[in-house]
Each structure stands twice: as C-alpha cells, then as structure tokens.
Design brief:
Blueprint lengths: L1 H31 L2 E2 L6 E2 L5 H6 L34 E7 L2 H12 L2 H14 L3 H4 L3 E4 L4 H7 L3 H13 L7 E3 L11 H8 L3 E3 L6 E9 L3 H12 L4 E9 L4
Parallel strand pairs: 3-8, 4-7, 7-8
Antiparallel strand pairs: 1-2, 5-6
Bound molecules: zinc ion (ZN) (2 copies).
Length: 249
C-alpha cells in the first residue's frame, strides 16, 4: 500500500503547487491587466482594450469639409448641410456613432466618463485636421445645471479638458445653457433646430479661433447654436470636433 500513499502525497503536493502557481498568475494578471475593458468586459491594461479600440468604426475616407459626413468624394458641402447656415466653419468626428463606438460613448455619457474620456480624447486628436489643432482655445457644449448635477459630470467638458491637454491648449467653460429644453433625441429634424435656438450664451468675451467639443454630432443644430453664441461674444471662427457622428446613408 506504500505506493498508494506515495501517489496520494504527490497529488497533495501537486495541488499545493498548482494553488500557489494560480495565486501567482492571478497576482501577475492583476499587475499586467489592472482592470477590465469597460466595453467588452475582458482584462485590459486600459479602460478600453486594444481590440475594442480597433473595432471602432472610424471615419478615415473622404468627407464633407463642412459637416464631416463621410462621402464618396471629398466635397466642400454635402446634401445634408447645404443651405443650413451653420455658424461653425467645419465639424469633424473621429468615427461613426455606431457599433462598439456607440456602446463606448454610452458608457462615457452615463456611468464612467472620467475613466474613458482620455482614450476618447486620443481618438479625436489622432486623426484631427491641422486646422482644428491650431485653435486658440477649446470649449465644450454645456449641460443644464440640473442635468449635470444629476450625472455628476459633463462628458463634453471631460473630453475638452483631455483634448486640450493633448493639444497643449486651454479648455475653458465659455458657454451657459440658459434654459432647459426637451432632449434633442425625442425630436424631429426641424424641431431640433427650433428647440435649441438661442439656448446658449457666452459667459465671457471670447477671442480668437475656438474649437468646440462634444461627444456626438447628430444634426449639427446644437453645435451651430453654440457657435452662434461664441461668435456673438467675439470668436473669430468656431470649429467643431466630436468623438462620433450619426451617419444616415
Ligand atoms: Zn474591450
Ligand atoms: Zn456636409
């Protein structure tokens, strides 16, 4: 029966070794991968893992120079923005508001803005046009005070601050949302335009060229109204950069 005891002892030792190894692997994993990806839930060194970043539907091809809509050929204005009288000179989005990028923006907006904004800001600055990079100052689309207090942060402000630090520019709160209005997502195209009309005002005089930051560009009505207020306050021109853009083909 001696061999039975030897085999049993070996098994016990092996189990102990395996347990110790397991603990070491866990410790190493938590050192190398200190958190999980907020988008897919897998282990990751950063809040958004490399796989999710690579899966984002980025806008890389030709687009409309005015509103940033992807187009077959590069155009100065497209069917969507022609005749709209936008108060900004150009708008650019890093990607389409779709798939994994849409999920990431949802997380940025509603639960973990502070953790995700740096990587989202990197996404914006990595493909940004030189014209936008040369802005004198950055600002962001404000929320109503009540909404911001409820959420605890304004994701556009977090993005502006991170994009500003990446570009070596200041991000300042230049605008105020001076009345509560209906959420834009519940309204039609024309209603959106009327809904935000004169909803913003500048809180101080504005100088030079301004880069206005928001998370998503939908119809351009909100950023155009912000641009109107900034120009009224003295901005020479207003450019817009967002993480994503809705694209209706
Ligand atoms: Zn992921
Ligand atoms: Zn356009």
């Amino acid at each position: 029966m001696l061999w039975v005891r030897i085999v049993f002892m070996e098994k016990v030792k092996l189990k102990a070794v395996r347990e110790r190894l397991g603990a070491m692997v866990d410790a190493l994993a938590s050192f190398v991968f200190p958190e999980i990806c907020f988008v897919c839930g897998r282990l990751s060194r950063k809040p958004i893992c490399a796989d999710c970043l690579n899966s984002f539907p980025l806008i890389t091809g030709p687009k409309c120079a005015r509103c940033g809509k992807p187009t077959a050929l590069a155009v100065p204005e497209c069917r969507e923005c022609r005749g709209r009288g936008f108060k900004f000179v150009t708008a650019e989005a890093a990607g389409r508001y779709d798939g994994s990028l849409k999920e990431a923006i949802h997380i940025l907006k509603y639960c973990n803005g502070k953790r995700l904004s740096r990587q989202m800001a990197e996404l914006v600055t990595s493909g940004i046009d030189e014209r936008l990079m040369s802005a004198d100052v950055l600002t962001f689309v404000p929320m109503t005070r009540g909404k911001e207090a409820k959420r605890g942060y304004n994701q556009a402000e977090l993005l502006a601050s991170d994009i500003g630090s990446l570009l070596g520019r200041k991000a300042l709160p230049l605008l105020l949302r001076n009345r509560a209005f209906k959420p834009q997502s519940e309204l039609s195209f024309d209603e959106r335009r009327r809904n935000v009309r004169n909803a913003f005002e500048a809180v101080r005089p504005v100088r030079g060229r301004v880069l206005l930051i928001d998370d998503v560009y939908t119809t351009g009505s909100t950023v155009s109204e912000c641009a109107r207020a900034l120009k009224r306050a003295g901005a020479v021109e207003v450019m817009v950069a967002t993480v994503a853009r809705t694209v209706i083909d």
